[in-house]
Design a protein that fits this description.
The structure holds 2 protein chains of 2 kinds. Chain A is an alpha+beta fold. In chain A, 23% of the residues lie in helices and 38% in strands. The chains are: A alpha+beta, B mainly alpha.
Chain lengths: 369, 606
């Protein structure tokens, strides 16, 4: 069954390095998202695996077969890689009807008419677009076009399905709906999905594993909750999670074993890590998710509300505290007047500690004042 | 751990295989070679011909062996004496005056009509719009011919009596009938529909909120036009002006009709005269000067449009702008415009029809009329030139068939190449190869038709390529290269509109390149691709300057035959052939339009 392996894959456009020395292993039947800001190389990576782009160097294996190898001069065209590709703008052929669009790939595989008819009907039913069979793409809404594009991609039953920001052209409600459908489709079709997005929420909710990239370099490759809970560096910590993690500057006064005493926001605090902290000193950054910074009556920190953003289910409170802007999330609907003084505490044992100079995480644990 | 090396250090065989696996690359390499051979090399031949001695006059005058190197041509042409005044500076000055004048006139007329059609509540917009663009389809020289038919008189030039003298008894002065003034009027009017289409298109699609917001800020109509509308359409106006300027500068046919009679030469007509008189070297120098000026104009154009292109962004999201009410002036302006457009669109046809049936020029009485020039069989009075009327004349029919065949062959080549170049350049956009092919394909545009024909004449008369001289093949070659720029431009534009994913979606299914082209890309851009084939057909049907030096004899093609009628004084045959050419062009455009919806001139409508 298809497992995709990338070894030392690099892609240069002239002098610009789009993807640098990427190693990646995509398990069979996984739902992998390539996540990152625009221009980080995620789409290029996807296109290289699909064979639409030729890497500058490296090796790509699908299902144990090398499909690209700069060393041996192997470069299989996309149609020999047994894949499906769903484009961001759907790329439906405007001069063909829905039926013709879905059937075209099967025609190319020299299927007979009856078999094509049967398969297309199956897909039309699966994606609930039977009534549009005779329409042209221009006569469909965005969501319907999206379904046709998915049907067309699925028609030859590819082993791997690549999707390049497929939901970015849909409105918020439809996107939510299609997310549900895609996840369902993943378990129904039993194939491997590789999905590109810049929407961290999409990555979190859909995937079995997230590959977070920035400027062509892999930042972290882990299951979504691992990425959320244990970010490998400041970039990952900041990119994932909404509202963004709080970054509180701190200085290490002394450290031994699992413990370090810190000075932060004018307070002395102790950081108790889950694993030994190796030789940390100097400037560090404490990473605290908004949900671990609750407003509590006995909190040791004092914050002043800057503005309050109630969203119904939860309320985001922005506070100033010792010169830093902090974010706290409170469950339920509350509204604080501007400049109210509120007590804050740092709770939980998933507080991250980053080395300020390198940006790398040095440990996770709890903070006591 | 797998060790990998950079691809750039890989064996060339691997890189070559990756390169040739993409059809776009193969196409680019193919066109690079073809274009270098067919447009750069001839250019080099022409350059070297500026420094060599040719057979005939030059050899006799210089007493030097043929093909020996000399700077005599330059010394002679730029000496500053009367020869250089007559053969270079005066024609250059004339060309510049005509170019400038027709550019200004074209913009003024076309722009004004465009404004009235798109921004006012003028009456009869549909009629004016349709009739106004009509002359653009006709060859430029038809208006020139029409002008002489109308205004020639017993006092000037050859002394033939024209319609105005015949009907009103008025003799127009010479400057009005021949020379720079009519050249400017005719060229300017011929290109005004072009200005109308471009400026009108922008005015029509311009975001109305831009003007509406000025209205809300209490600006009056005149201020809005001056401060908002004109600055926004300025880049388009400028670029239109430069296009008309360069067309006017390199125009050959109009100065031939309107200048020859009074020895008023422009660079193009001078170039031909010099070459025919045996001063090839100097002719080639003039060709080179024209090419340099073409490059200069293009450079200026790109400088301006490149920098200010963002102005013309069209959203078309907002609703229709409220039309200016012309009130009392509406009917008078409409009537003036209707008469004006009808005069220059319909009158020429009537004039040609009339001129082709009168025995004695200037006499429009029924007794003087004859259908001899159309269907006459034998008539000794006209035996010197032709024996039979043009519809019964085998020379005419074979010239017509040759021209149609030439048009079809050239269209097939140019349309196909333009599309393939468009495809290849867009797919490999940004690569050096693609940039090279795109600019090489555009290169012939810089060369005035006469200069381009001169280059090919130089090649076809050189020892190695004698077999090309006077053949149908050389005509196909020049026309294909000369008309390629527009075809490749439109090819690039139409392919740019197709997202690469549209093709990639088929690549994933393993659809071979040919099938992708024929089943996906072509059908999507059907209309614009057919226009790409239509344009060269019409261009060839009305082209003179490009062929006149290269045809084996004057009556080889219909258009060159027409010119020989004019030069030898058979005005009636000339008018008949002109009418025939116009009718054929209209027919082609009409049929294509009905069959496919593509059209030579997509009007902006009322």
């Amino acid at each position: 069954m298809p497992e995709i392996i990338l070894q030392h894959v690099t892609k240069r456009f002239d002098k610009f390095v789009a993807v640098q020395d990427l190693d990646l292993q995509i398990q069979d039947r996984g739902f992998i998202t390539l996540l990152g800001p625009s221009g980080c190389g995620k789409t290029t990576t996807l296109r290289m695996i699909a064979g639409l782009e030729t890497p500058t160097s490296g090796r790509i294996l699908i299902d144990g077969t090398p499909v690209f190898d700069s060393e041996k001069g192997i470069n299989l065209p996309p149609n020999k890689r047994d894949i499906g590709f769903l484009f961001q703008n759907y790329a439906l052929w405007p001069h063909m009807t829905v039926y013709e669009n879905i059937a075209f790939g099967l025609e190319m595989l020299k299927w007979d008419k009856a078999r094509i008819r049967k398969r297309v009907d199956e897909l039309l039913a699966l994606l609930k677009i039977e009534q549009f069979e005779k329409r042209y793409p221009a006569e469909l809404s965005g969501g319907q076009q999206q379904r046709v594009a998915i049907a067309r991609t699925l028609a030859p039953s590819p082993k791997v399905l690549f999707m390049d920001e497929p939901l970015s052209n849909l409105d918020a409600k439809l996107r939510q709906e299609m997310r549900t459908e895609l996840k369902r489709l993943h378990s129904d079709t039993n194939s491997t999905f590789v999905y590109v997005t810049h929407d961290q929420l999409e990555a979190m909710t859909l995937s079995t594993k997230v590959c977070l990239m920035d400027t062509g370099v892999l930042q972290q490759y882990a299951p979504p909750l691992e990425i959320y809970g244990h970010p490998a560096n400041l970039f990952v910590a900041e990119f994932v999670g909404n509202p963004t993690m709080n970054f509180i500057p701190a200085t290490v006064k002394s450290a031994s074993g699992n413990r370090a005493s810190l000075s932060l926001l004018g307070h002395d605090a102790t950081f108790a890590a889950k694993a030994p902290l190796d030789g940390i000193k100097g400037d560090v950054v404490l990473g605290v998710r908004p949900e671990f910074l609750p407003i509590q009556p006995d909190g040791p920190l004092r914050g002043k509300t800057y503005s309050t953003l109630p969203a119904g289910m939860e309320t985001t409170v922005k506070l100033t505290c010792g010169g830093a802007m902090l974010t706290s999330v409170v469950f339920g609907c509350v509204d604080y007047a501007v400049d109210t003084e509120l007590p804050l505490s740092i709770v939980g044992d998933n507080i991250a500690l980053f080395d300020k100079a390198s940006g790398k995480s040095v440990g996770f644990g709890s903070v006591t004042f | 751990m797998v060790h990998t090396r950079d691809l750039r250090h890989e064996p060339w065989r691997y890189r070559l295989r990756a390169f040739v696996s993409k059809p776009a690359n193969l196409l680019l390499v193919f066109f690079l070679i073809v274009l270098v051979v067919l447009s750069l090399l001839p250019m080099a031949t022409m350059l070297s011909n500026m420094f060599t001695v040719h057979v005939g006059t030059e050899k006799k005058l210089l007493r030097l062996p043929v093909d020996s190197t000399t700077l005599w041509h330059f010394r002679k042409l730029f000496a500053g004496d009367e020869w250089s005044q007559v053969n270079f500076w005066q024609p250059l000055w004339n060309s510049l005056i005509v170019a400038l004048g027709s550019g200004i006139l074209g913009i003024a007329v076309g722009g004004t009509v465009a404004w009235f059609i798109t921004r006012s509540d003028l009456k009869c917009k549909k009629f004016i719009s349709a009739v106004f663009v009509f002359p653009y389809m006709m060859p430029a020289w038809t208006l020139a011919l029409f002008w002489t038919n109308m205004f020639q008189n017993s006092q000037v030039g050859g002394g033939n009596i024209g319609m105005v003298e015949s009907i009103f008894g008025v003799c127009m002065p010479e400057w009005f009938v021949y020379g720079l003034f009519p050249m400017i009027v005719v060229t300017g009017l011929h290109y005004s529909p072009f200005a109308y289409l471009l400026i009108g298109g922008i005015l029509k699609n311009m975001d109305a909120t831009l003007e509406e917001s000025a209205t809300i800020l209490k600006a009056n109509r005149a201020t809005i036009i001056r401060r908002v509308t004109i600055p926004i359409v300025m880049p388009a106006i400028l670029s239109t002006f430069l296009l008309i300027f360069s067309s006017g500068f390199s125009s050959y046919t109009v100065p031939v009709f309107l200048g020859s009679a009074v020895k008023c030469y422009t660079l193009s007509t001078k170039m031909r005269a010099l070459i025919q008189a045996g001063y090839q070297g100097q002719g080639y120098i003039i060709a080179f000067v024209s090419i340099l000026l073409g490059c200069l104009i293009l450079g200026v154009n790109q400088h301006f449009t490149g920098k200010r292109k963002s102005f013309t962004t069209v959203t078309g999201k907002s609703g229709q702008v409220s039309l200016v009410k012309l009130r009392k002036a509406n009917w008078p302006i409409s009537i003036v415009l209707i008469i004006f457009t009808a005069f220059f669109a319909i009158m020429p046809l009537i004039s040609f029809a009339l001129e082709s049936v009168i025995r004695q020029p200037g006499n429009y009485s029924l007794s003087n009329m004859t259908l001899h020039f159309w269907i006459g069989t034998e008539d000794s009075a006209y035996e010197t030139g032709m024996i039979a009327g043009i519809l019964l004349n085998t020379t005419m029919w074979s010239a017509l068939l040759r021209q149609v065949l030439l048009a079809l062959v050239v269209a097939a080549i140019v349309g196909t190449c333009g599309m393939l170049i468009g495809y290849a350049c867009v797919r490999r956009r940004g690569s050096r190869l693609s940039r090279m092919v795109e600019s090489l394909a555009f290169f012939p545009y810089l060369m005035p038709a006469m200069a381009f024909a001169t280059i090919y004449l130089a090649v076809a008369t050189s020892a190695n390529f004698k077999f090309l001289y006077g053949t149908f093949g050389v005509l196909v070659l020049v026309a294909s290269i000369k008309f390629l720029p527009f075809a490749s431009r439109s090819g690039v534009n139409s392919m740019m509109q197709i997202a690469p994913e549209i093709e990639e979606a088929a690549v994933i299914f393993g659809v071979p390149w040919r099938t992708r082209m024929t089943r996906i890309l072509f059908p999507i851009q059907k209309s614009s691709i057919i226009s790409g084939y239509l344009l060269p057909v019409i261009s060839v049907m009305r082209e003179v300057a490009l062929f006149t030096l290269l045809v084996p004899y004057a009556r080889y093609l219909l258009t060159t035959m027409l010119f020989s009628f004019n030069e030898t004084g058979y005005a009636q045959y000339g008018s008949a052939v002109t009418l025939l050419i116009i009718l054929i062009i209209i027919l082609i455009n009409f049929v294509t339009n009905k069959l496919t919806g593509a059209s030579f001139d997509k009007g902006i409508g009322g």
